[in-house]
Specification:
The protein is of the alpha+beta class. It has two domains: 7-148, Trna Endonuclease, Chain: A, domain 1 (3-Layer(aba) Sandwich); 160-287, Aspartate Aminotransferase, domain 1 (Alpha-Beta Complex), CATH 3.90.1150. The protein contains eight helices and 14 strands. It has helices spanning 19-28, 78-94, 111-121, 168-172, 177-193, 237-245, 268-271, 273-287; strands at 7-9, 39-48, 52-60, 65-75, 99-108, 126-136, 139-148, 197-201, 206-210, 213-214, 218-222, 227-232, 249-250, 259-264. The strands form three sheets. Strands 1, 2, 3, 4, 5, 6 and 7 form a seven-stranded mixed sheet that branches. The protein has a four-stranded antiparallel sheet with strand order 11-12-14-13. α5 crosses α8 (273-287). It starts with 6 loop residues before the first strand and ends with a helix.
């Protein structure tokens, strides 16, 4: 195994490398930023009304989320942050049908400035990425490190007291008796992990309660022919591939709340019990903070 030493360099002070070169590298392979899921290039140098140009507009492969990306050479500053927020705000108003995330990239994000932008992270979705350029002989490479990720949201509808309470009869009256039964099968397995778990019926979904407190690591939205089964788990390509290889009907990942959505029909739980049990237990262990 050969060890090689890379030399870190400043792009801002480099006579040949520049911001356009960075844009080219990201445009060629947006995955190098390490953003969640599969990300593609939507536009570059996108004109903003009375506000200049957005460096890069990226979006995830299913087109549900867009990333407004601003790049700065050297250390980031207040004006760069304001510009990033401004472009994010313009794009989200232009296209409200998408989720939008502001992404700020700089060679140096100081701890002081990181503290400042952390304050904004709970107000609107913001990601901060520190960029390093490395040289080996006559070759150059880029390393992107996320220093501030999206604000971690709680389990969906943890503010349960504002939800309109429903009953099992309410759901079964919609002609969903068989698909509500899928939730029963899943809960039966979940109770092997914690016997205190119980179903919590709400008007728009069925959740899980633990000792009378919301614990929605699993959610259900029964329809007449199937149930939309939600599992609270951080996205990973490995898990995504595993679910698809198991021939499960995986819907788009709910990146806003952090749920995998799986469409289950009557009989599917028995057919996929091993794979479903595995992800249910994984979710329970990951979210069991009560």
């Amino acid at each position: 195994m050969n060890y090689v030493k890379f030399t870190p360099i400043s792009i801002k002070g480099h006579p040949e490398l520049n911001e356009k070169w960075i844009q080219d590298r990201i445009a060629d392979d947006p995955q190098i930023l390490g953003l969640q899921g599969e990300v593609i290039l939507k536009a570059r140098e996108r004109t903003q009304p009375k506000a200049g140009r957005l460096d890069l507009l990226l979006q995830d492969a299913d087109a549900s989320r867009r990333y407004e990306v601003e790049i700065q050479l050297g250390a980031t500053d207040e004006s760069h942050l304001v510009r990033t927020i401004e472009y994010w705000d313009i794009e989200r108003k232009r296209h409200p049908e998408h989720d939008h995330v502001a992404v700020i990239i700089a060679e140096d994000i100081t701890s002081r400035f990181l503290n400042v932008i952390s304050l904004f992270n709970g107000v609107f979705p913001l990601i901060a990425i520190q960029m390093k350029c490395l040289k080996l002989e006559e070759s150059y490479g880029l390393v992107f490190t996320t220093v501030l990720d999206l604000f971690a949201r709680g389990l969906v509808d943890d503010d349960e007291d504002v939800q309109e309470v429903a009953t099992r009869d309410y759901w079964e009256s919609k002609g969903t008796k068989k698909t509500v039964g899928i939730a029963d099968q899943i809960l039966e397995f979940a109770r092997t992990l914690d016997p205190t778990l119980e179903m919590k019926y709400n008007k728009f979904y069925i959740g899980i309660a633990k000792q009378d407190k919301p614990f929605n690591f699993l959610t259900f939205r029964p329809k007449k022919k199937s149930t939309q089964f939600g599992v609270k788990l951080k996205y990973s390509q490995e898990l995504n591939d595993e679910l698809e290889n198991a021939a499960l009907d995986v819907m788009e990942y709910d990146s806003r709340h952090g749920y995998y959505r799986i469409r289950l029909k009557p009989g599917d739980y028995d057919k996929h019990a091993e794979n479903l049990s595995k992800i249910i237990e994984h979710s329970f262990r990951s979210n069991n903070y009560l």
